[in-house]
Design a protein that fits this description.
Layout: H1 14-19, H2 23-54, H3 56-64, H4 69-105, H5 120-146, H6 154-185
């Protein structure tokens, strides 16, 4: 009966209606945060690769004493992932205190500010994301240790490892700078 008279009903979410004027700015902010996360992960990978390069003698001694490559790579994976997960836990605690600060200071001035909460679901998701990021960061470091299996000597390994590190981050840097230019163009 109502459709016959030409009236239509459109259902729009309340949150979509509240953030419609600033949706593009929020998407740009999220892209910036993601870009900072990628740059931070690249810096962390580089620092861990440099640290691994300094531990070549230690790992050579362990290999001479009978440790297998699986044990060494497993240790590197666990150690690197643990470092990143501990950083994620620190980030979760800082995020929880920041959300508490926002809620106590200016939550009533923000659209849907009363809905800003830090709950267990958010903490588990952030912890899971830091675990995945830890594994992603650990893969190049483990690959760096696997590159020594060719046994051309430690001198070759140092130069080859440095070449791989510069190649990896050179390609990554070009793509990151291209993405920055693309985002800045919008």
């Amino acid at each position: 009966m109502i459709a016959d008279t030409g009236f239509r009903t459109v259902v729009v979410s309340l949150q979509g209606d509240h953030v419609a004027p600033i949706r593009n700015m929020l998407l740009l902010l999220q892209a910036g945060v993601l870009l900072l996360l990628v740059i931070g992960a690249a810096n962390l990978i580089n620092l861990l690769l440099i640290r691994s390069n300094g531990r070549i003698k230690e790992l050579a001694v362990r290999l001479a004493m009978g440790a297998s490559w699986q044990h060494i790579v497993g240790e590197v994976l666990v150690e690197t992932t643990l470092i990143v997960v501990l950083g994620g836990l620190l980030g979760i605690s800082l995020g929880a205190s920041g959300i508490h600060l926002i809620a106590s200071v200016a939550a009533d001035k923000l659209p849907l500010g009363a809905r800003i909460v830090f709950d267990a679901r958010l903490a588990v998701e952030a912890l899971f994301a830091s675990l995945i990021l830890g594994l992603i960061v650990a893969l190049p470091v483990a690959w760096f240790h696997l590159a020594d299996r060719c046994s051309f000597g430690q001198q070759w390994f140092c130069s080859y490892g440095c070449f791989l590190r510069f190649w990896w981050f050179g390609c990554f840097g070009r793509h990151t700078s291209g993405l920055c230019l693309l985002v800045a163009g919008f």
